[in-house]
Model the fold of this input.
Amino acid sequence: IGNADAILDLLPPTALRFPELERRELFPFGRRPNRPVNLNGENESVLENDLSNGSSPNPAGLLQTGLINVAAPDGIATISINGVTVFSGGSLTGTITVDSSLGLLTVTGFTPVTVGGNVVGGLLTYQYLLQDNSLAHDESGPDGGVLDVFAIVVTDIDGTTGSSTVTVEIIDDLPDVAITGAQTVAEDSPTNLSGA
Done:
């Protein structure tokens, strides 16, 4: 290669330099928009009469199961239930039970969906166990007045959140009255009556 033209020798070397562009200026179309987090909610119901002190005890009836479908295209960072983190770092944490005044929600599993090594969704399975009755019912039976609500919040790696709930309706037990048979009373004589 020969010598440069005389005109190039007259320019100082710094005159041909351009400032370095920041990465965001180099790739203006490479930025990905922040994508939403989606999850479904669940509604369950349990009967107080299934409790051990209910009118027709049935332990199996106290347990309800369900699943929540989670989608976070940017990647799931955490899943929390009533403020308790049950999923972090790509897997379930050691704390998978959330207690309320009436029942216990237990996370029983998580089946992940991964893309490029990131967990971007999955199925969270749970079970709910009714542990106690409520005195807050307005009327007997399914009055809709007593709900055990668990708030579920999913946060992705960009900090975007999505939320939903697992809502369990607690259906009131009905009083149980049994009449064992007819009773007779002699007029003007003291008598003790009993019944169940």
Q: What stands out?
A: Confidence is low (pLDDT under 50) at residues 23-27. The first helix runs from residue 6 to 10. The CA atoms of residues 56 and 141 lie 14 Å apart. The radius of gyration is 33 Å.
